[in-house]
């Protein structure tokens, strides 16, 4: 399962800023915050110093440095605001994220509508350093704050016939001018198979770089599924439903032969019109080879055992 | 050798054609090319190449329909600027983006149809640019015009290249495509004749008006109309 490498341990400055962030949400459980990307594993002080000295900067478990906060918050694919990646930050500046309710229902025993603040308080916020690989062949390393989706799903108790999880973004063309475009079938919808959703790597993120999530990155709450192309990680979620049938995502509806339900990062399975074998890490000039399941093969490959990944793209 | 006289309009077109490049260089040094500058360079040089290709294709119809014969004087230059920006586009793609990596490039160009059509368009533009001089025009004689009609094919390929590379929303590429098709259609003999007749009628009408009001002299018909109209 998901292992914590020394390089993933959060530096002190990050604890401090995160503590500020969580204080903002009224969280007192300080002890739980020290645990960053790991689940139930205490980082030793030795490994912390080793992590910072080996790379000289904060990095993911493969040793690649975090993408700058500047880049993460100014280069956004968020079509609800604009198809121009650099215009999203400005257009989403006044986006209202409080109050914000998330309705969790469908095939569950305990349907419930949560306030985002309540979710942040209820589930220990952890730091997860994940690679994000966009289907457009660029990638980033992002230090998210959030909690495993599984924790929320367990809380609402999916019934036996729940096979998939369907997510929906807010629909509000007044605030999200891109939703006035008739080209796409708004609101944004995404889905996961239930075992994918229950995987520990799949999180609901509420912050990044120790700060609350900025609107352009999907505030106040978004999905992060690091082994799938970025568009699967739906932003500004208002609805989570457990369903029996495979949900049809916005991209599946827009171009069914190009965007499948699974959309796992896979260098061997190209997009019908462009290659997926390499990518550009934002901040770097050279292309780098794309890794199977975005480098999370060890953790997630078992979910797809026996499946034809070319067929189930 | 006698230097050809360069009109004010020609000066304007030449100067304006370098503006996108200067603008791109300024943006590059000011860090205005997003955090993914190579992609921004690729997209912008490609867009400029397409725009110049469209402008060069627009020259002939501008003369046919509006009698703007000055356009014919800059047609070749605009075609060459299209080639210049297409070359930047191609070089950024193979050099900056793929670092001349043969394996990745072979895969990118020959296995992906959008890249293949773009590459084909560039390969078509290459001999056209080389044979654009007066010397080649003389040497090739009648064949020169035939060869240079390949620009129509390049125009179509470039639009297909654009349509195939966008993620989903093809409305903007289709708009460019409609412009290219319109400009190509204006060259089909019956359409060209009727467009030129519209122009002839307008001239006759305007001349009648000018005789009545006696303000200006008669409007000259377009050069091409003098040649083609029977």
Write a concise keyword list for the protein shown above.
A: 313 residues, Sulfite Oxidase, Chain A, domain 2, B: 230 residues, mainly alpha, 2 domains, 11 helices, disordered C terminus
In short:
Chain A has 313 residues and is of the alpha+beta class.
Please tell me about this protein's structure.
The complex is a heterodimer of chains A (313) and B (230). Chain A has 313 residues and is an alpha+beta fold. Chain A is built from 10 helices and 12 strands. In chain A, the strands form 2 sheets. In chain A, strands 3, 4, 7, 8, 9, 11 and 12 form a 7-stranded mixed sheet that branches. Chain A has a 5-stranded mixed sheet with strand order 2-1-10-5-6. Chain A is globular. Chain B is mainly α and 230 residues long. Chain B contains 11 helices and no strands. Chain B has helices spanning 8-29, 37-66, 70-97, 102-110, 113-130, 134-140, 142-148, 150-165, 171-185, 189-213, 223-228. Chain B is globular, with a radius of gyration of 21 Å. Classes of the chains: A alpha+beta (313), B mainly alpha (230). At the A-B interface, loops of A face helix 4 and helix 5 of B.
Q: Largest interface, with Cβ-Cβ < 8 Å?
A: A-B, 30 and 24 residues
Structural class, from helix and strand content of chain A?
A: alpha+beta
CATH architecture label name of chain A: Alpha-Beta Complex
Order of helices and strands of chain B: HHHHHHHHHHH
Residue share in helix of chain B:
over 70%
Low-confidence stretches of chain B: 225-230
Main β sheet profile of chain A: 7 strands, mixed
Largest sheet of chain B: none
Query: What general outline of chain B do the C-alpha atoms trace?
Result: globular
> What is the alpha-carbon Rg of chain A in Å?
19 Å
Secondary structure: helix percent of chain A:
10-25%
């Amino acid at each position: 399962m998901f292992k914590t490498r020394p390089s993933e341990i959060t530096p002190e400055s990050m604890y401090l800023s995160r503590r500020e962030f969580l204080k903002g949400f009224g969280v007192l459980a300080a002890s739980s915050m020290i645990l960053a990307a790991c689940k139930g594993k205490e980082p030793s002080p030795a490994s912390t110093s080793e992590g910072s000295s080996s790379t000289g900067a904060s990095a993911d478990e493969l040793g690649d440095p975090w993408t700058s906060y500047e880049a993460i918050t100014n280069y956004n694919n968020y079509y609800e605001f604009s198809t121009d990646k650099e215009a999203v930050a400005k257009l989403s500046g006044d986006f209202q994220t409080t109050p914000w309710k998330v309705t969790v229902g469908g095939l569950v025993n305990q349907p419930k509508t949560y306030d985002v603040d309540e979710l942040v308080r209820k589930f220990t916020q952890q730091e997860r350093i994940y690679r994000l690989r966009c289907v457009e062949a660029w990638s980033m390393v992002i230090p998210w704050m959030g909690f495993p989706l599984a924790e929320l799903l367990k809380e609402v108790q999916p019934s036996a016939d729940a096979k998939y999880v369907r997510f929906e973004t807010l629909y509000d063309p007044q605030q999200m001018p891109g939703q006035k475009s008739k080209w796409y079938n708004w609101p944004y919808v995404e889905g996961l198979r239930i075992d994918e959703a229950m995987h520990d790597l799949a999180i609901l993120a509420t912050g990044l770089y120790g700060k609350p999530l900025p609107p352009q990155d999907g505030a106040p709450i978004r999905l992060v599924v690091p082994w799938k192309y970025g568009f699967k990680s739906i932003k500004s979620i208002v609805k989570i439903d457990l369903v029996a049938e495979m949900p049809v995502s916005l991209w599946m509806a827009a171009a069914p032969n190009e965007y499948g339900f699974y959309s796992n990062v896979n260098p061997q399975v190209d997009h019908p019109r462009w290659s997926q074998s390499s990518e550009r890490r934002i901040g770097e000039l050279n292309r780098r080879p794309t890794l199977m399941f975005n480098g999370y093969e060890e953790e997630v490959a078992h979910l797809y055992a026996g499946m034809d990944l070319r067929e189930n793209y | 050798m006698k230097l050809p006289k360069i009109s004010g309009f020609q000066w304007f077109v030449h100067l304006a054609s370098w503006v996108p490049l200067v603008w791109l260089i300024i943006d590059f040094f000011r860090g205005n090319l997003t955090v993914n500058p190579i992609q921004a360079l690729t997209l912008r040089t490609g867009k400029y190449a397409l725009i110049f290709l469209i402008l060069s294709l627009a020259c002939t119809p501008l003369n046919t329909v509006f009698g703007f014969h000055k356009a014919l004087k800059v047609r070749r230059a605009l075609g060459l600027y299209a080639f210049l920006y297409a070359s930047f586009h191609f070089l950024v793609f193979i050099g900056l983006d793929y670092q001349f990596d043969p394996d990745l490039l072979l895969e990118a160009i020959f296995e992906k149809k959008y890249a293949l059509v773009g590459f084909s368009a560039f390969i078509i533009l290459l001999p056209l640019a080389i044979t654009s001089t007066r010397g080649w025009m003389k040497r090739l004689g009648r064949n020169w015009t035939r060869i240079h009609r390949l620009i129509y094919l390049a125009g179509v390929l470039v639009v297909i290249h654009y349509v195939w590379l966008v993620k989903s929303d093809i409305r903007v590429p289709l708009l460019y495509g409609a412009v290219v098709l319109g400009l190509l259609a204006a060259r089909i003999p019956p359409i060209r004749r009727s467009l030129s007749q519209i122009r002839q009628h307008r001239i006759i009408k305007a001349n009648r008006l000018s005789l009545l009001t006696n303000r200006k002299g008669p409007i000259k018909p377009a050069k091409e109309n003098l040649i083609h109209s029977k």
